[in-house]
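In practice, a research group might receive sequence data for several interacting partners and want a quick structural hypothesis before committing to experiments. The following worked case mirrors that situation: the sequences arrive first, and a predicted assembly follows.
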Amino acid sequence: KAGVTQTPRYLIKTRGQQVTLSCSPISGHRSVSWYQQTPGQGLQFLFEYFSETQRNKGNFPGRFSGRQFSNSRSEMNVSTLELGDSALYLCASSLAEGFTDTQYFGPGTRLTVL
Amino acid sequence: GNSVTQMEGPVTLSEEAFLTINCTYTATGYPSLFWYVQYPGEGLQLLLKATKADDKGSNKGFEATYRKETTSFHLEKGSVQVSDSAVYFCAQEGLTGGGNKLTFGTGTQLKVEL
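A structural hypothesis for the assembly, expressed as tokens:
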């Protein structure tokens, strides 16, 4: 069974631009969560989607948004990029919503904002 | 709010040495607790979890016991291998204003040498 895939793996943008990252969960998984990983802030939860609905969200500004499609694939969008948005963005999928079910992480998308 | 504190790294050990990585949490109630591992260039993998007090999670020789009296979930392994070199993250599931989320510690890098 294929694992969680994220595209693109690397991305370079400039300040003020917007970016869309994609995540394809493991087949059959309906929950997708997104995390931001930076050296300074560590791993921070962005949001969780289940059955096309946002179930939970972290403490990020409205520039960070996401959505989930009927096939459970998810995208996250960051508008008006800032230098501080440079990070590794990780996506995780699981069968059920919530976190006690095992989450499987993708390799991440490395975003660099210049 | 909820937080997770884990010992700073890097931790450098010789092969076959005993490992302890300390983790304490602050939370309302009794959250589920997790240890994740991140190998270089990869996403996170769930190592073990415990969903209630006094539970012991174990996997691949690693163990951690949920201690509510000390609000701790220390990771231990009796004999580490070079292949255990990675970054280890302690995490808890807890309620926030936006629903449940995973809160991570800052990560502890483990280096195992021959």
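Before designing any experiment, note the following. The longest strand of chain A covers residues 42-50. The interface with chain B takes residues 4, 33, 35, 42-45, 47-48, 55-59, 90, 92, 98-100, 102-108 of chain A (CB under 8 Å).
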